[in-house]
Amino acid sequence: MHGHGYAPPPPKRPSTGVLVVLRVIFAAVPLLSIGFLAWVATLRVALVTRKAADWWIFVGSLAAMGISFGYLSTDHTDDFSSPNGNVGMIILLLNAAACTGYFLFADIRHYSRPSAFVYPQAAHPAEGYGYPQAASPYATPVPQQPVAPVQQVPVMPPPPQRPAPARIDQVRAELDELSDYLRKRDGQHEDGRDGR
């Protein structure tokens, strides 16, 4: 009675055309922004998969961008040609390439699995509620207990019908008394006498 309730319906997989357009956009953003928006692709992966590892990769891409900004801020040339500027640009471009590659890998992997469209929170309440569950490959096999033969229980005929409850009998008796009273009263009116 106080269970988890109904599991929400699993999200539907976007159409292939929508997935392709989203992949092109999120793969292009880090490269076209020269790495300044590389974190957008890893944020998309973290939001879609909801895995802790993907959130850590998102934080790592933000940290790499911060480190590259630190190097770029110490370069006082116009074209970032000092050693610090070169290191900052290398980190920024490598971060862009790594974020783009990881986004494509994680997004394709996520949408290619059939079980990817179940809410992580909904998987636990669904167990034991009549939903079919796939056997885990890591589950330890349960030893089979010998089954004792089942004895046949003789089928008993249904019990005889119970008499009507006492309340119904009482109501019937009262209705009979009322009808008798009304018959007697109507009989007095027919004789010409008033019942007062």
Task: Offer a few descriptive terms.
196 residues, mainly alpha
Explain this structure.
By secondary structure, the protein is mostly helical. About 5% of the residues have low confidence. The chain is elongated, with a radius of gyration of 40 Å. The chain contains six helices and no strands. 57% of the residues lie in helices and 0% in strands. Helix 3 runs antiparallel to helix 4.
Compose a concise summary of this entry.
With 196 residues, the chain is mainly α.
Task: Present the secondary structure layout.
Elements: H1 16-32, H2 39-49, H3 52-73, H4 83-112, H5 120-126, H6 166-190
Helix pairs in contact: 1-2, 1-4, 2-3, 2-4, 3-4
Could you tell me the mean pLDDT?
Answer: 80
The residue ranges in which pLDDT falls below 50 over 5 or more consecutive positions are 118-126
- The share of residues in helices is 55-70%
Distance between the termini: 62 Å
